Description:
It holds the Pfam family GASA. The chain contains 4 helices and no strands. The chain is mainly α. Helix 2 (about 40-45) packs across helix 3 (about 50-65).
Amino acid sequence: xxxxxxxxxxxxxxxxxxxxxxxxxxxxxxxxxxxxxxxxxxxxxxxxxxxxxxxxxxxxxxxxxxxxxxxxxxxxxxxxxxxxxxxxxxxxxxxx
Length: 96
């Protein structure tokens, strides 16, 4: 009987690990976009600015590189590290 309990516990442990790995992969890929998703995401991201043309240009450039656009029309850049950390030569944020 003790051997049956051990094999059951081992099975539960293995299944738990598989589920954790699956959810970790989902969470990591949550912000990943396909290149064709960039324009609609950037259209929303740039919707509140009066400088739409440069915003769209840089947003789409950043999205193409990072495959990520932060949620909302401003801020929230921490949700996309690549987008957040890409800087101009002067050290200012490249992505809107």
